[in-house]
Amino acid sequence: MIVVIDFGSQYNQLIARRVRECRVYCQIEPPSVGIETIKSLKPDGIILSGGPSSIYDKNSPKIDTAIFNMGIPVLGICYGMQFMIDALGGTVKKAAKREYGFAELNVKAPESLFEKIDKTTTCWMSHGDSISKLPQGFSITAATDNTRVAAAMNIKKNLFGLQFHPEVEHTPKGKQVLRNFLFNVCGCKRNWTMKAFARESIQQIQETVGDKKVILGLSGGVDSSVTAVLIHQAIGNHLTCIFVDNGLLRLNEAAKLKVILKQHLKINIRFVNTSKLFLNPLKGVTDPEKKRKIVGKIFMDVFEAEAKKIKGADFLAQGTLYPDIIESQSAFGGPTSIIKSHHNVGGLPKKMKLKLIEPLKYLFKDEVRKLGATLGMPEELIWRQPFPGPGLSIRIIGEITKQRLTVLRKVDDILIQEIKANGYYKKLWQSFAVLLPIKSVGVMGDKRTYENIIAIRAVTSKDAMTADWARLPHKLLAKISNRIINEVNGVNRVAYDISSKPPSTIEWE
Ligand code: XMP
Questions:
Q1: Which of 258, 241, 208 minimizes the C-alpha distance to 307?
Q2: Which of 26, 29, 78, 451 is catalytic?
Q3: Which end of the chain is more exposed for a tag (fewer CB within 10 A), N or C?
Q4: pLDDT (tens digit, 9 = 90+) per residue, 38-91?
Q5: CATH number of the domain at 194-382, out of 3.90.870.40, 1.10.10.10, 3.30.540.10, 3.40.50.620?
Q6: How far is CA 298 from the centre of its chain?
Q7: Catalytic residue among 26, 29, 99, 165
Q8: pLDDT tens across 277-302, in order?
Q9: What topology is assigned to 401-496 in CATH?
């Protein structure tokens, strides 16, 4: 396996993804991780990530320099390289010219990291400091016009540095550079497969849980469903799932899910219908954060009450994914302000005094889907688009009423039908409708109308941290708009949201 030390780069997750795409397991750790912990992970190699700091900043992140003497190959990227060079006696200086964007890389040493790479190739740079003097034992392996030391190595000690970013798409041969590091230098094996992961996880869950019981909040989303199946395969009927219908789900969603879940997951599931509990307290509430807090609090109460009925449960399982963990633990570059309260991981179970099991916590969404397939789950569960916990409450801007819920449900149903029928459902991260709190004038059958406006949101994304609005064909948008206005009473206008994240977010609230 490979350990990535997180110096705060926005590309950290990408490094981990790239390594895993090579079928090598990889874990991100903060710089504060002790040498003993690193040793216990038995890594074949260590990657020091980039980061926004300059090594001369007072609070720049640092790791114990003993890692350079462990006999484990180290690859420093950008800040990671500068940290290594500085720590080993070289010099890093403010660059005369900041280098940001594409640069032509001239390879000086076509062996080791640059095997199978042309003498000149494009790379992506993003740095203000540069290396002006290398430590003893190091040599320059590549340069660009602006950067004399664009790559360097100490081959005897297996220490490597890249000033550019091999993990981004903008460095076309970057993956080859990483492959060279993983396989030629570190001697990694391609054994990170979902089958192996499933086998190991099942064994681990069995060891952790023993003959105790586990409960899990099942939402019907891919993360909680895959978690349920994995745990079920490990401990069978010692797992009980709780599905809470909060009355804020899509059209017939609870009923449809009940059928799919019962049919495909032969798991104990308790279905609880508590819609009324949620709708009353939401009356008159328009503030998005208040909506979230209300829904979250009631969910917790309902869940807790249900969980208490399951005697002898010691564990609570959650479908937490790797991006959630990284975002909340990132030593540098983690979120400094809360954008939406859902971004806080692990709010649910604290007061329930249950031990947490999060078997997906090292996986990315696409890996979770692969795991689901490996476990034999049906496509219709694996490929469900994410749906937020507060449900339609945050897609009805302004006040939530039964009547507005009905309108939005009908609209959303038409949208999803069309998206699916035209083959876009799997291609999009999410596609949904938002009911706006304003009305507009229209004309229908020669009569004036004054009705609701719907916004359609369809985005592509890898992990919801960033997203782009989907370029859906005009013909499809026209069909969606026509059907909504014709078939749903109370809507006379449809708008398409063409903003990306950032600066917008995926949900409107
Ligand atoms: P934003 O709107 O922050 O959403 O760009 C990112 C992803 O998170 C989902 N989302 C939520 N999920 N509870 C959830 O479980 C929430 O309160 C919540 N708010 C947003 C959103 O659908 C998107 O996939």
A1: 241
A2: 78
A3: N
A4: 999 999 999 999 998 999 999 999 999 999 999 999 999 999 999 999 999 999
A5: 3.40.50.620
A6: 26
A7: 165
A8: 999 999 999 999 999 999 999 999 99
A9: GMP Synthetase; Chain A, domain 3 (3.30.300)
